Amino acid sequence: QSALTQPASVSGSPGQSITISCTGTSSDVGSYNLVSWYQQHPGKAPKLMIYEVSKRPSGVSNRFSGSKSGNTASLTISGLQAEDEADYYCCSYAGSSTFAVFGGGTQLTVL
Amino acid sequence: EVQLVESGGGLVQPGGSLRLSCAASGFTFSSYWMSWVRQAPGKGLEWVANIKQDGSEKYYVDSVKGRFTISRDNAKNSLYLQMNSLRAEDTAVYYCARDQEEAYFDYWGQGTLVTVSS
Question: B113 - beta bridge partners?
Fold first, then answer.
């Protein structure tokens, strides 16, 4: 099972909005509304930011939002803050045998 | 507070074995699927294996099938990963994660580093 495709890096200035894409196939992203997003700061464990395409766990800022169209999911961060600088990973359910497949990760730089 | 604490990582030679453990607290361990997710140095995340609440179902990524075994002890609130026939490409930080059946991981441990090298 191939990893989902994410841009290697994105950047934005404080206060701006950025969007990170996550492209899969009809076997994963396209077939299930089970895309999640994780934030990972250097040397730290990943943190769940979005699940089931667009739901936010308790405690996650409403500046983070998710969506999906066809085989591509997206994470949008509005009102960028310095603390948002991190790596972001998407993940999708990929069927009962494969279970979950991650994207390669996107490094977000806040300029 | 949910806590997941991994242990058991270290340096092992190619072909060797290692057993990882994950101690869970702060939630009803026996009510959740659990997963192992790994991250090679400087690389992305890779789901490795998961196990159903009662241990009756287990799933693995193709690259570890036949070499790794996931298990759990609900009486001890613990998750395990037995890794045999280790290869250099298994070198990674291994995270224990609470696994929602909708294929997302809502709590993660701090990870334990496994290095496979001669």
Answer: B93
pLDDT tens string for chain A (111 positions)?
458 999 999 999 999 999 999 999 999 999 999 999 999 999 999 999 999 999 999 999 999 999 999 999 999 999 999 999 999 999 999 987 778 999 999 999 999
Among candidates A3, A45, A100 on the partner chain, residue whose Cβ is nearest the Cβ of B95? A45
Report the half-sphere exposure of B70 (CA within 13 A, side-chain side). Answer: 28
**CA B118 distance to own-chain centroid:** 23
Subunit contact B110:A52, Cβ cutoff 8 A: no
Report CB contact under 8 Å: B47, A102. yes
Q: Coil, strand, or helix at residue B76?
A: helix
